């Protein structure tokens, strides 16, 4: 059974709802919207590469840089957070702050490990949501 099928079956068995899709290169992703406590909505993503041996876990849309003059402050905060976190890495792309973690899963994986790691990345974002919002609102 492929890693994607194994993950899909796990989601069904655990009644975890994620939308599935694929990219032109044949890689497959699963996504769902999640609300950050006392905050906005983010998009949780699990992206399997074409070989299904690497999975990228992402939390998209943590914050938006609406004032270009604040971009340097956001980058400074991102650098500070990335220094403190071993696994979660924050980044800015086109004015949107997101977080990512990539993991090698080999030929067969435990889907629970992927969900647990996605929750870890999400918790890192949730813990720092206020710091990003403080910059947005300042």
What does this structure look like?
- The chain is of the alpha+beta class.
- It has a single domain (3-137), classed as Yope Regulator, Chain: A (2-Layer Sandwich).
- Helices cover 38% and strands 33% of the residues.
- The protein contains three helices and six strands, in the order αββββαββα.
- It has helices spanning 3-14, 71-84, 111-137; strands spanning 19-22, 28-35, 41-48, 54-64, 89-93, 96-104.
- A six-stranded antiparallel beta sheet has the order 1-2-3-4-6-5.
- The radius of gyration is 16 Å and the shape is elongated.
- The mean pLDDT is 94.
Distance between the termini: 51 Å
Q: Would you list the SSEs in sequence order as H and E? A: HEEEEHEEH
CATH hierarchy, class: Alpha Beta
| Residue-averaged pLDDT | 94
Question: Spans of 5+ residues with little confidence (pLDDT < 50)?
Answer: none
Total beta strands: 6
Give the number of helices.
Answer: 3
So, CATH architecture?
2-Layer Sandwich
Major beta-sheet overview: 6 strands, antiparallel
Helix content: 25-40%
What is the beta-strand fraction? 25-35%
Structural class: alpha+beta
Radius of gyration: 16 Å
Number of domains: 1
Largest sheet: spatial strand order = 1-2-3-4-6-5
Q: Specify the overall morphology.
A: elongated
Fill in the CATH topology: Yope Regulator, Chain: A
